[in-house]
Amino acid sequence: MLKAAFPGSFDPPTLGHLDIIRRAAAIFDELVVVVAENRRKKYFFSAEERTSMLRRLAADHKNVSITVCDTLIVDFLQKQDIKLLVRGVRGTDDFSYEFELSMMNRALDPRIETIFMTTAPEYFVLRSSSIKELASFNGNTAGMVPPLVAEALREKFRRGSAG
Ligand code: ADP
To answer: What is the distance in A from the centroid of ligand 1 to the CA of 36?
Structure first.
């Protein structure tokens, strides 16, 4: 039984994240998408909003579940008895960051294996931060995020600009 976790901020979820979820769900028996909630970090969407978006987006994958984690990922994995960590890699910058992170996690618990999945070429430029920036200028995010996320972005910025 192969159970893996895919952690991230997902602030907001993009087509790149969903592609990794879909591909990982086809490899592993169970995939837990872990929504990071770090009290020292400022998120655009709340953990509840990010979780609810991901639940709707992954609803077709019966072996995918979404959960929030406000602790160290290693502690979460130990509690859930998960030893596989999936991370998406867009390019060499991502890789050096992800490599260091995997070394850190391995130092904390040598049983944890990080599995890197390369992005699909059509999604390699997708980054949650640039998509938020684009949405803040009312730019068209279709083709970068699923329609429900595009709508959530529009709604948030509309409310924000309305005060
Ligand atoms: P973080 O806060 O760790 O950067 P993100 O929500 O940005 O979390 O991303 C979660 C994971 O998804 C990371 O492993 C990241 O590299 C990966 N990822 C993000 N965008 C893409 C993409 N377009 N294609 C493939 N993987 C991606």
So the answer is: 12
